[in-house]
Specification:
Largest sheet: 5 strands, parallel
Number of helices: 14
CATH class of the largest domain: Alpha Beta
Shape: globular
Number of domains: 2
Strand content: 15-25%
Order of helices and strands: EEHHEHEHEEEHHEEEHEHHHHEHHEH
Distance between the termini: 57 Å
CATH topology of the largest domain: Rossmann fold
Radius of gyration: 20 Å
Strand order of the largest sheet: 4-7-10-3-11
């Protein structure tokens, strides 16, 4: 059947499992202690599941779990062949959520991501056919091989949780997680991600080459794609949504919030920085610190949580000059910013 009238309608039926659904009402009551404990249990299960697939990459595993619990999007930047796509697939499997994969390439069009309106001759009306971005977890492999106009198709989806086509906005499923991979800028056929695109990723991480012991395990089919094939869900979309809601209720004292804001503001005046972190980054830093606390089995965030996610949350958003990098700037900012005593 179709919902709506005129040109922008959505075809929903047995042949459209990915059709957009209405946004659920936001809960008004604070999550109970039981909800928070359930979120902590899911966090541990997710970490264990991902660690069984991505061997020896604790930072990347932590970033993926924090992204899921905080309702953030994740960017994975690294050279080909180190497990970026495997991590994204493992995260979707562990969450028990549907996954849509989009392969980035120079000919990818915005409508290949968002969907397109088509004319249905049997009904004499235009129907909207949802694109892969309407899946709960979207893997956009090699995002920086897509041209800027296609990258821009993700901006509204990642920030507002909706897609606008032909003057009508369609809500995306909740929760909604975009996991994008990119090859290092400068490799053949890459387009740099613009600042507004980078700012919509809650965290960015790298995987790196494994050490010799891990690489020997991988070639003997321990971990990697073999472990991914045997992976079972640790949760469901419902438990994932509840965990995000519970994580948002983790206590953040004014002192911790002031510390996070001080770190963000310090990036704007740091040497060699042309563009510092935005207020959106400050909000993301607090949300990720709350998720870090849940992963550490606590109902309150501390300055250590802010420090634990600061580089992953902020470094990719900074535009720097010379030989400086976002990571080196953050290291200096964290060293210079007074830490509150709780």
């Amino acid at each position: 059947m179709t919902i709506g009238s005129g040109r922008a309608t959505i075809a929903i039926g047995t042949g459209s499992p990915s059709a957009p659904q209405p946004k659920p009402a936001r809960a008004t009551a604070a999550p109970s202690p039981a909800d928070l404990h359930a979120a902590m249990a899911l966090a541990v299960d997710l970490r264990n599941a991902l660690a069984s697939v991505l061997l020896g990459s604790d930072d990347a595993v932590t970033a993926a779990v924090v992204a899921a619990l905080s309702g953030s999007h994740l960017l994975i930047e690294d050279v080909p062949g180190v497990g970026k796509t495997v991590l994204a697939r493992a995260l979707a499997t562990a969450l028990g959520a549907g996954l849509a994969r989009i392969q980035g390439h120079p000919d990818l069009l915005p409508s290949d991501v968002t969907g397109v309106s088509v004319f249905a001759q049997d009904t004499g009306s235009w129907e909207f056919r949802p694109g892969p971005v309407f899946a709960p977890v979207v893997l956009l492999d090699e995002l920086n091989r897509t041209p800027p106009r296609t990258q821009s198709a993700l901006l509204e989806a990642m920030e507002e949780g909706q897609v606008s086509v032909d003057g009508t906005s369609w809500p995306l499923p909740r929760p909604h997680l975009v996991v994008a991979t990119q090859n290092p800028v400068g490799q053949l056929g890459t387009y740099p991600l613009v600042e507004s695109q980078l700012d919509r990723f809650g965290l960015s991480t790298t995987i790196g080459y494994p050490d010799v012991e891990v690489e020997q395990r991988l070639v003997l089919h321990d971990g990697g794609r073999d472990a991914l094939a045997a992976l079972t869900p640790a949760g469901s979309p419902a438990t994932w949504a509840a965990a995000i809601e519970a994580t948002s209720a983790v206590t953040v004292t004014p002192a911790v919030a002031a510390y996070a804001v001080a770190v963000v503001r310090a990036t704007r005046t740091a040497a060699a920085v042309r563009l510092g972190a935005s207020p959106r980054a400050a909000i993301a830093l607090i949300r990720c610190a709350q998720a870090h606390a849940v992963l550490d089995q606590r109902a309150y965030a501390t300055p250590d949580d802010v420090q634990g996610v600061a580089v992953a949350c902020l470094a990719h958003r900074l535009v720097v000059d010379g030989t400086a990098t976002g990571r080196t700037v953050l290291d200096e900012v964290l060293a210079a910013t007074p830490v509150p005593v709780l």
